[in-house]
Design goal:
single chain, alpha+beta, 10 helices, 21 strands, 26% helix, elongated
């Protein structure tokens, strides 16, 4: 279990503003992902956990081991925390072989250190687990990007860490190597039971890896919870915009029916149904929040159906996933290239909004 209250203040850089990290990170999940944009405070959080940065206030408890307590004057040195840290650039010692990198990690770990035979067993176990046995005498410049990545993970795990920290570990890797890394990390999670904190700004990576998601922005946690909950039901407009996968459209509640567990919202002069919205009143204004991938675009006139909006097409653009359609009211939807052929040239289209995907954010 990780329970970390961290306050860390940084003075203003030249031409910039001061920065304050103020978070309470609490998780019992195997993999916790810190998701946020560059400069949000993700890496600073990892550095405070690892002991590379000294918080100004707070308390850090990991696996019943007290790492830091400002009030009690406790600050364990990094080498005593037994944290495995995988950096963006892998940070293998360039003059050492893969085996020597692993051996150095064990020899530098906090006491009690294992004896010679135990060291050899652990190193060989990691080399075989990460398919590095045949590469053990190579130096980093003789390894591919994926091999360096596996060596970096093996070095972090050979010390049997209490906590594994990964700072944007797939940055610079192509799609094939990223997929390979995800498989390696998920296999590691299943076999070794080491709690992990992964820093990323990529939503797809978050989906692949996370059990718990902590969304961070400008030094504050916006929302924490299971990934399905955070992604499906963002708690604020700010968070929805940060995640970047939603339509946010001005809307007003026109009807609430707790008996039938439904609501009605008016937007763009039309109405759609959604689930019942507790803690709201008829007449409340706010934002319809619905993921772009949940929308279905239909030709006009469509087959009979409800929960559809008639919208004017403003533009279309080809993307890696198909065709993105933007409508005059700002709504954006994605369709496959083949489906777009049936829609091409239409000035108006119907957009079906699944009731279960409707999420309302009050102003």
């Amino acid at each position: 279990m990780i329970d970390a209250r961290i306050v860390k203040r940084l003075p203003a850089a030249q031409g910039g503003d001061p920065f304050e990290l103020n978070v309470h990170l609490r998780s019992e999940s195997p993999v916790t992902v810190l998701l946020g944009a560059s400069g949000a405070g993700k890496t600073l959080t990892l550095n405070c956990l690892a002991g590379f940065a000294h918080p100004d206030e707070g308390r850090i408890l990991v696996q019943d081991q007290l790492f830091f307590d400002a009030a009690a004057g406790v600050h364990l040195a990094p080498q005593k925390r037994r944290c495995g840290y995988i950096f963006q650039d892998h940070a293998l010692f360039p003059h050492m072989t893969v085996r020597q990198n692993l051996r150095f990690a064990i020899q530098s770990s906090p006491p009690p250190r294992p004896g010679r035979l135990e060291r050899h067993r652990r190193i060989q176990e990691m080399l075989e687990a990460f398919e590095l046995a045949d590469l053990s005498n190579r130096q980093p410049h003789e390894l591919s990007g994926g091999q360096k990545q596996r060596a970096s993970i093996a070095r972090a795990l050979v010390i049997q860490p209490r906590l594994l920290l990964l700072d944007e570990p797939t940055r610079g890797l192509d799609a094939r190597l990223r997929a390979s890394f995800y498989q390696i990390l998920l296999s590691t999670k299943a076999k070794l039971k080491v709690p992990m904190i992964v820093v990323t700004h990529a939503l797809d990576e978050c989906f692949e890896l996370a059990d718990t998601v902590c969304v961070i922005d400008r030094g504050r946690l916006l929302q924490t919870g299971p990934k399905e909950q955070v992604i499906a039901r963002p708690g604020s407009v700010e968070l929805a915009r940060l995640l970047g996968i939603y339509n946010l459209l001005p809307a007003e509640i026109t009807h609430l029916d707790p008996g039938r567990k439904l609501s009605r919202l008016r937007l763009a002069g039309q109405e759609i149904e959604g689930p019942y919205l507790p803690a709201t009143l008829r007449g409340d204004s706010g934002w319809l929040c619905v993921p772009r991938h949940e929308l279905k675009v239909l030709p006009y006139p469509p087959q009979a159906g409800d929960n559809q909006l008639l919208l004017e097409v403003a533009s279309s653009s080809v993307t890696a996933r198909g065709v993105q359609l933007e409508f005059a009211n700002g709504l954006v939807a994605e369709v496959s290239q083949s489906d777009y052929e049936d829609l091409r040239g239409s000035r108006e289209l119907r957009v079906a909004v699944p009731r279960g995907a409707v999420h309302f954010l009050a102003r």
